[in-house]
Amino acid sequence: MITDICVVGGGSAGLCAAVSAARGGRKVVLIERSDRLGGMGTLARVHTFCGLYHPDVSKPPMLVNEGLPAEIEQKMRERTGVGPVKMGKVYVLPQDPDIFREIADELTVAEKNLQVKYRTSCTSISRMEDGAFVLETSAGRITCRALVDASADAIVADFLGATRLAEKPEKTQSSAFIFSLRNVAPAAGEDAFRMRLALAIVRAVKAGELPETAMGTASRNSAVAGEIYFTTDLKPGGRSDLMATGKAFAEALSEFLREHFTEFASADGPFPAAEPGVRESWRWLGKYVLTEADLIDGREFPDTVAMAAWPIELRETTHGAKFRFFKRAEPSAIPRSCLESAEIEGVFFAGRCISASHEALASVRVMGTCFATGQAAGRLAVEYLRGPKF
């Protein structure tokens, strides 16, 4: 198969990269290893879009990135009937993973220039003398002129022998396991109940009734009435280990809730995610490495292609997040040089594998920002193919 652009990974970033490149008039192939698009928003059931809105919560919520981020936000609001909500010092948009999957399918099907290959893994990538990239995949060979890596783990860099960045294991951000319970009494979604629940969990852990894993557990309302999501942080590890630990914990906590709280007496579930929520692994070395100071200080760049609006959310332990907020309640810039390889021409990247420090990644990894960097990477790939070589 011959195409103009190949996008590796169909998560939030890859979805937007592929759609934006197709809308730019180029033939695009998007390969996704699973049976669905949306990445952490569908597979891991991350149930809020973070990073969509302006950091100033003293004002009504305002989108910071136009185009596909705004389009997806509007579609989700229309279908759930739920708008942005204030969560501490930030706005988030509750989202339904099943609806997000539908939206992703509709966006890709609408683009005649775009072909999606599901359940497709990449086994090697090489570059020809004429500059074309050749991808060997489980669905056959794909030849393209530009590549977008939205794999979340920078696998394209690994195949091409490019430099990858990673944090020390002891500082790598924790992973998350998410499950939901349905047919829950409305009171379970109230702030007062969540505080009561948090205290009960702490006591249960100390008494040996729940595992230590429960200490970092948070609950949040779903976009669907009667459903509550639970998220617990786990130490980074392999997928199978994370899934086993997460599912066992989901069963234990669900049983505890049904036994001790009338609000959960008739609850159905647990309904676990299909994948653990990995927050950090490998990243590309770009022409520039975005830093925490760039975001905190609101540094301006002449080549800005997207805006970051989420604070630095560090989860280096399993006991919850530590937030560092921008000095000014304004979005911060992400330059194109963070989305371009420092070593290989014609390769762009988006989402969790962009060129960023460990601390900066803690801001830009959220889905709202991934929509924006994905859109930007797709546009950059189109722009590259308009150059003198092509």
Automatic annotation (TrEMBL):
It comes from the Bacteria. The keyword Metal-binding applies. Pfam families: FAD_oxidored. InterPro entries: FAD/NAD-bd_sf (IPR036188), HdrA-like (IPR039650). Keywords: 4Fe-4S, Iron, Iron-sulfur, Metal-binding, Oxidoreductase. Its EC number is 1.-.-.-. One of its GO terms (molecular function) is oxidoreductase activity. This is FAD-dependent oxidoreductase. It comes from Luteolibacter algae.
